[in-house]
Amino acid sequence: xxxxxxxxxxxxxxxxxxxxxxxxxxxxxxxxxxxxxxxxxxxxxxxxxxxxxxxxxxxxxxxxxxxxxxxxxxxxxxxxxxxxxxxxxxxxxxxxxxxxxxxxxxxxxxxxxxxxxxxxxxxxxxxxxxxxxxxxxxxxxxxxxxxxxxxxxxxxxxxxxxxxxxxxxxxxxxxxxxxxxxxxxxxxxxxxxxxxxxxxxxxxxxxxxxxxxxxxxxxxxxxxxxxxxxxxxxxxxxxxxxxxxxxxxxxxxxxxxxxxxxxxxx
Length: 266
Hints:
By secondary structure, this protein is mainly β. The protein has helices at 29-35, 60-66, 97-105, 164-170; strands at residues 2-3, 7-11, 14-20, 41-48, 54-56, 74-81, 86-91, 113-117, 122-126, 132-134, 138-145, 151-154, 180-181, 185-187, 191-197, 203-205, 217-229, 232-234, 239-243, 247-261.
């Protein structure tokens, strides 16, 4: 078991804590050594005090074509939300590239996107190609492919670079899934999440897709509560890396999120 210390990334809208990362833009050497290479996931805590840009991430195919790297499918678990907090999640119709570009240039893109209220415990799955933005007053756990490519469509006039052509080329008119409370488990090709507490399970064996290497390491994130993991006292938002086959023993009143990489490796 390895306890990970976050890397802080300050933003104009708040900050990110890179909780588990071997990405070159914020690597944790101890995690690189533990997994023996490039870990396919990047786990963050995001604190949004202002709205983020309206953005989109490329899928594996598009990311390889444009940037020579893996794509970025991600998800959010809402840790805290101020009253009235919301997200931009998907588009409210099917639009041509020309229509989207015109909406950006005429500052009317907001009428093309879905604004959805959220509360603590809600879960949002964001396949690559989904237009999205985080609103102010939110603190999120983000689990994503280990990719740092973000194409901004619109940045509310803040003067940062936008990437209109690349962003539009990546948009997929996906049917946005309903946002609701996290339902125990979630699985996609890139990661599996499981929420549990110490009343449900005291001890278990961590199981990962492979016996060794980057896909042989899972993560345990402390969502809430007090207690110990393998005898070590823990607090909210602590995160630990476990190797395949390692025993996890949790005591106290803890709510935990287990994060396991998918078998898809890019």
